[in-house]
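One record is kept unedited as follows:
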Amino acid sequence: MEKSNLISVIIPAYNAGELLKQCIENLLFQSYKNLEIIVVDDGSTDETVEIVKLFPSVKYIYQSQSGVSIARNTGIKAATGEYIHFMDADDLITLDFYEKMIAANNETEADLSCCGFYHERYPSLSQQIDFKVVVSLIEDKLIETNVCNYGACWRYLIKRSFLIKNQLFFDEVIPTGADRIFSLQAVYFANRIVMVPEVAYIYKYRKESITATKDIKLVRRRHQDRRYAAQVQVDFAEKHNFKLDRTKQEQRWEIKLLGIPVITKRMFNPGKVRWYLFGIPLFQKKEVGK
């Protein structure tokens, strides 16, 4: 394990069972090998500790059940890598994920690299990144990452020095939904973000997970957490004098040369249009009458 370009992968785990094993195996089969895998066991009552013991290279941290936000913060404090990535214990990534994400980071000197994702249960919610784009203006960062609509922290490979400099941690007031706050703040403070095509995070569905449970008490708490996170986002945007951009891309038009997009027009709801030349944002306008 080399310290240079080391990626610390933080996996909060609560009763994920065999899915945690699949997640770790997925990481060990990555084309990029310089990984520090950290499993933070959030008070599991299943075979989590036995599963982790099958992989001697994986760091194991146990904490009494405190929620995913505290588990992620525990992982950040334990990490020694130059970069940090968060994974859920039941998810997967494409096998060249870290190779391409870190290459994009190093090439552009970005604070964050952002990937697309595939939503296993609701494919229509998936987001694909078609070409590499580097953005630094807040409006561009909000549109390209779509962070106001989908704030999952696992979309980002993040420089640890950037997190430390900006004191970015997960809000421990709420057990779920804190990544919406964390991701918005990270996107805002990043000097540069690179969007990385051809790799994807695979968001899997597990009915026992806290985001899918039908338990009425947990469902109510989840809605409370989302309302809290939404208000914190609004307050943060007002404090830093920007607007939360919840526009969504609806259509695209492009001219290709030898299969490579040369000129691209992306049309968003409500009425925004953005033009690109070889994937580089040129300008944005609001269409008349919108």
